[in-house]
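Onboarding guide, step 5: your first structure request.
Type a short instruction followed by the sequence, for example:

Predict the 3D structure of this protein.
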Amino acid sequence: MQTHVKQINIAKAVNFIDTHCIMPLSLDEVARESGMSKFYFARTFKSVTGTTFKNYHNHKRIEKAKNMFLQQKISITDVCFSIRFNDVSYFNRVFKKIEGTSPSCFKKRLIMDSRLLSK
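The system replies with structure tokens like these:
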């Protein structure tokens, strides 16, 4: 497959992931959307984006979680289930891996920052 065609197919996949990031997407589903077999898609996605499909999808979900924490007073559990993580413990691990801090520490820092800004 030509490089340009690969990039177009991966761009379709990235757009699909970005649009449906809170959904529990499978490699099969996104590969199908991009018109590739799942094995070829996985290899091509990593070579074009520099990261795996799962890692990219999790980053998008955590980005969504952070925005939810910023925009509203919402519990970690509610955010976890809103972005379709089915396990709070797994959500906490993924969040910490990506952000370098737990969701609870992230929320506390937001609260402290907002208090400092309101003074």
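Each response can be followed by summary notes, for example: The first helix runs from residue 3 to 19.
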